[in-house]
Specification:
single chain; 496 residues; Growth Hormone, Chain: A; 0% strand
Length: 496
């Protein structure tokens, strides 16, 4: 019975995390309503881009402090904060559209609030999923991450069905829809400590702290052996060992204690933890210590290149459509262009959803069945982005723009589908939210640079630059895979 309740609670929390994430990716739908919004308020294309970029900054720029607070206080309060900010941001933009007034700075501020709300709620959802499924983390985080990518398609579809050609009603839908989904998910989003379950499911057995077993993910990192390596996986400071305190009653473990490191281990626990091969629970890299690891710079660089490339297309796919269609047939109507923009946004969103889901589940398959590195998913993401850049450089018929949108969404999805698991494995589960926040700083600079390059000249120049950047990302990914193999070899030599 206890096992059934435990499994049911985790499943309910996973569904709640997925619903919350479905409300958090609405910044990707900006291209669907931005042209009409800019026309109504008489904004230039540069001003319109600033509003869209402010939403992206809200998602990425405060990821570190938000992550620190989530790691310390638990995820649930930040779902509420996120819901409130989403409602305030989108409803204020709705009012600005209705009144046809508002300074660019004010509009950017409200767009930023909507992005920050997405950041808070999404980080809380991913953290909860990672904690609830420690041995299936890639699959568990894939569903909320995939829902984040599907958000644009979900809301744009609702808007086209119920409010066709009505940006005001669509912005109101974004306000109440994101608030309602996030608030509903809040009541069911809870961390179910697997340690409590293990203790209750084996009455009379020794403390679970002394009954650690090899996980499949750990076996991919370290071969099965008598003891686990105790050295840090990176040069520099030794990773923090954080085994549970054997004298601490397991029944007292709650949501907060599963997020924070327990008290200092006794010597007996250090010995017991030598067979705890689940690396993400043994190590704890966070804060400035990240900057002294090779893995951080590998992952940060790859995220900057690929996410920046993806965001450039996401923010400007509508401009691509307008430019090509007007060149191809200057008699097309505004409503036709709006419809085409919505189609491209939907294609991008659906492919992002598919990429996120396949990447998360596929990375678990790589680790558990093939005993390979999750980093190969980043290699695939680089290849997909390269294909997208080739299409962007070669497409002259606007009917084929869907390939640019589809491959950009797919690459973006593969990238973000596997990244939470990579960050967790490299730096530990306890600092996941703040470490994820550090990674989210990467696209802030790169996306702004790529967007500025897009606006300076013909967009073909920008796509040539992103093509070269993706080639560089491919090289960095191979370096990261090689570095990981060398670290494994050192660990194996240490065991021998």
């Amino acid at each position: 019975m206890g096992q059934q309740l435990y499994g049911h609670a985790r499943l309910v929390a996973s569904v709640a995390a997925t619903l919350i994430s479905l409300a958090c990716g609405t910044n990707y739908v900006y291209s669907a309503w931005a042209p009409q919004f800019a026309e109504r308020l008489d904004l230039s294309s540069t001003q319109s881009n600033l509003i869209g970029l402010s939403g992206n900054l809200g998602v990425y720029s405060l990821g570190v402090p938000v992550g620190v607070l989530i790691d310390r206080r638990g995820p649930r309060p930040f779902v509420l904060f996120g819901a409130a900010l989403l409602a305030i941001g989108y409803f204020s933009l709705h009012q600005a559209y209705d009144s046809a007034s508002g300074s660019v700075a004010t509009l950017c501020f409200f767009s930023y609030l909507s992005g920050l709300g997405s950041c808070m709620a999404f980080a809380a959802a991913v953290k909860t999923s990672a904690l609830n499924w420690p041995h299936h983390r890639g699959t568990a985080t894939a569903f909320p991450v995939a829902a984040f990518g599907l958000s644009a398609f979900f809301f744009s579809s609702l808007g086209s069905i119920f409010f066709p050609g009505n940006p005001s009603a669509f912005l109101k839908l974004l306000s109440w829809g994101t608030f309602g989904l996030t608030l509903f998910g809040f009541f069911f989003l809870r961390v179910s400590s697997h340690r409590v379950h293990e203790a209750s499911s084996r009455p009379g057995s020794p403390d679970p702290t002394f009954r650690r077993t090899l996980s499949a993910e750990a076996e991919a990192f370290y071969p099965r052996s008598a003891t686990a390596p105790q050295c840090s996986p990176e040069p520099g400071p030794t990773a923090t060992s954080v085994p549970g305190d054997a004298r601490e009653p397991q029944a007292n473990i709650d949501e907060t204690s599963s997020l924070m490191p327990p008290p200092l281990a006794t010597p007996e626990n250090v010995v017991a933890s030598s067979v705890d091969i689940d690396r993400s629970r043994r190590i704890d890299f966070r804060g400035l210590r990240l900057l002294r690891t090779h893995s951080f710079w590998h992952l940060f660089s790859i995220m900057a290149i690929l996410a920046g490339t993806g965001l450039m297309t996401i923010n400007n796919i509508g401009n691509n459509a307008n430019a090509l269609w007007k060149h191809f047939d200057d008699s097309v109507s505004k409503s036709f262009l709006v419809h085409r923009q919505q189609m491209l946004v939907s294609a991008l969103s659906v492919c992002s959803f598919v990429g996120r889901l396949l990447s998360g589940v596929g990375s678990d398959f790589l680790v558990r069945s093939l005993h390979a590195s999750r980093l190969w998913c980043l290699f695939v993401a680089c290849l997909v982005f390269l294909v997208a850049q080739v299409f962007a450089l070669s497409v002259q018929n606007p009917h084929l723009l869907g390939f640019v949108s589809a491959f950009s969404g797919l690459g973006h999805g593969v990238l973000f589908g596997v990244f939470p698991s990579l960050v967790t494995e490299a730096f530990g589960i306890r600092g996941l939210s703040q470490n994820w926040g550090f990674m989210m700083l990467a696209p802030v600079a790169s996306s702004n640079v790529f967007n500025l390059l897009y606006g300076l000249d013909c967009y073909r120049t920008a796509y040539w630059i992103t093509f070269g950047a993706c080639c560089g990302g491919l090289v960095i990914t191979l370096q990261a895979i090689r570095h990981e193999r060398l670290e494994r070899a050192k660990d194996n030599d240490g065991e021998d």
